[in-house]
């Protein structure tokens, strides 16, 4: 006997799945994947410069986001170094010095092999129980921090075009990639109670918005021109318009 209920559920699930999707991967691992609709979809867009340019903008948005987070991470993680704990405390006590510092900033006392410190709002240095420099910033081979990134646009499961690039971001930033920027969103009141790792995440996503909506909007706009004549569809023109100085690689233009 045929299980009509099961068959119906499978059909509903298949029908519910949208035709369009983007997939963001690092070293072949899926980090973010979204299915979405494109109203007034124009098939001509699939072989247009306008779509490839939209995909390039999406990749640039992601790359810029990771660079911003790397700068924030390093501003906290790369610590100020003092010769003694007394020197550190005296430095912090001076108002002109404290005004130049950031709450949560890393502090290191040379010779202290047990713990480093972070700056607190009450002008004290709080021990964190560990050392900042575990090799993350002093790796002999910078290629160890190299990862391959890819942003691809697909239709009906088929890859239409994609951008790949190499990035050199700290391991903490690579491991915490979140295009929604929701991970690490804590209230201002909770800030003083966060662990050091939570504080890093909090600072990295503070004031950042969800990137996913903007990525989808870029693609939808490029794929929904009312008049097909408005598209640049000659493949030679597509590559002529491409920024050849970019380190990002375009491929799979249908």
Describe the structure in your own words.
The protein is α+β, with helices and mostly antiparallel strands. The chain is built from eight helices and nine strands. It has helices at about 5-15, 50-75, 85-95, 95-100, 170-175, 195-205, 210-220, 235-240; strands spanning about 20-25, 30-35, 80, 105-110, 115-120, 125, 145-155, 160-170, 250. The strands form two sheets. Strands 2-1-7-8-9 form a five-stranded antiparallel sheet, with helices on one face. Strands 3-4-5-6 form a four-stranded mixed sheet. A hairpin with a 2-residue loop joins strand 1 and strand 2. Helix 2 runs antiparallel to helix 6 (about 195-205) and helix 2 (about 50-75) packs antiparallel against helix 7 (about 210-220). The protein starts with a helix and ends with a strand. About 20% of the residues are buried. Residues about 1-15, about 135-140 and about 240-245 have low confidence and may be disordered.
């Amino acid at each position: 006997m045929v299980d009509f209920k099961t068959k119906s559920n499978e059909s509903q699930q298949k029908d519910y799945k949208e035709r369009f999707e983007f997939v963001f991967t690092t070293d072949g691992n899926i980090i973010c994947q979204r299915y979405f609709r494109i109203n007034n979809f124009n098939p001509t867009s699939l072989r247009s410069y306008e779509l490839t340019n939209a995909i390039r903008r999406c990749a640039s948005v992601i790359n810029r986001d990771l660079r911003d987070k790397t700068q924030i991470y390093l501003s906290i993680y790369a610590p100020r170094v003092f010769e003694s704990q007394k020197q550190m405390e005296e430095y912090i006590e001076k108002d002109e010095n404290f005004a130049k510092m950031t709450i949560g900033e890393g502090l290191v006392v040379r010779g202290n092999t047990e713990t480093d410190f972070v700056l607190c709002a009450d002008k004290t240095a709080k021990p964190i129980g560990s050392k900042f420099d575990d090799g993350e910033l002093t790796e002999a081979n910078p290629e160890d921090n190299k990862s391959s990134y890819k942003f691809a646009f697909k239709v009906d499961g088929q890859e239409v075009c994609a951008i790949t690039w190499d990035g050199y971001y700290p391991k903490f930033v690579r491991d915490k990639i979140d295009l929604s920027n929701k991970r690490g969103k804590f209230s201002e009141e909770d800030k003083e109670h966060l662990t050091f790792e939570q504080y890093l995440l909090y600072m990295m996503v503070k004031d950042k918005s969800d990137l996913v909506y903007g990525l989808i909007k870029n693609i939808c706009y490029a794929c929904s021109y009312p008049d097909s004549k408005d598209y640049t569809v000659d493949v030679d023109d597509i590559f002529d318009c491409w920024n050849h100085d970019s380190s990002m690689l375009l491929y799979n233009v249908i």
